[in-house]
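User: Please fill in residues for this 153-position structure.
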């Protein structure tokens, strides 16, 4: 049985919120058949962002990245479904400037840095760590999608 309840953690970054992409990005995940199990609009602290991006703390752009992420609210979401982590990354695109058209970054981004619009977990470990960092257990909702029988055999 394929795992149809894999979860990935997605953030619409400050530029994505300010450029009015919340609805468009949510729509893409809904249309792809993923189930929303958690969602909130938050202004996260410096410490919170530093923990989230701990793998990048030696990067020269790290201080600037943390500042950009604190510049406004972000939408934190958990989406669930078959291969959600890998497919979520595919939907995101890659390097913002060079992402293929049809991906979120390929359609909405102009540059890396302050213009990357969206974050998505890149592994099962990252997804577990990120979800528990951003959401309490009771903020994640367990329910069945009414159209599940049309999404999975
Ligand atoms: O977001 P993604 O996983 O595709 O890329 P990353 O290499 O893990 O970098 C995380 C984030 O750091 C990017 O989304 C950018 O916001 C930022 N970044 C940056 O400001 N300057 C770079 N040269 C590379 C990344
Ligand atoms: Mg990354």
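Assistant: Residues filled in for all 153 positions:
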């Amino acid at each position: 049985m394929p795992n149809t309840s894999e979860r990935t953690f997605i953030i619409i970054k400050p530029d994505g919120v300010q450029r009015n992409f919340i609805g468009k990005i949510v729509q893409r995940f809904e249309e792809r058949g993923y189930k929303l199990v958690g969602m909130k609009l938050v202004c996260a602290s410096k410490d919170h962002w530093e923990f989230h991006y701990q793998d990048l703390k030696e990067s020269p752009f790290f201080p600037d990245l943390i500042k950009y992420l604190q510049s406004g609210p972000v939408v934190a979401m958990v989406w669930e479904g078959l291969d959600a982590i890998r497919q979520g990354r595919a939907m995101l695109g890659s390097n913002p400037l060079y992402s293929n058209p049809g991906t979120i970054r390929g359609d909405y981004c102009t540059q890396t840095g302050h213009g990357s619009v969206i974050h998505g977990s890149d592994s099962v470990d990252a997804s577990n760590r990120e979800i528990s960092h951003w959401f309490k257990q009771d903020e994640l909702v367990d329910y069945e999608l009414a159209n599940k029988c049309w999404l999975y055999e």
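For context: Strands lie at 6-12, 35-42, 74-81, 118-120.
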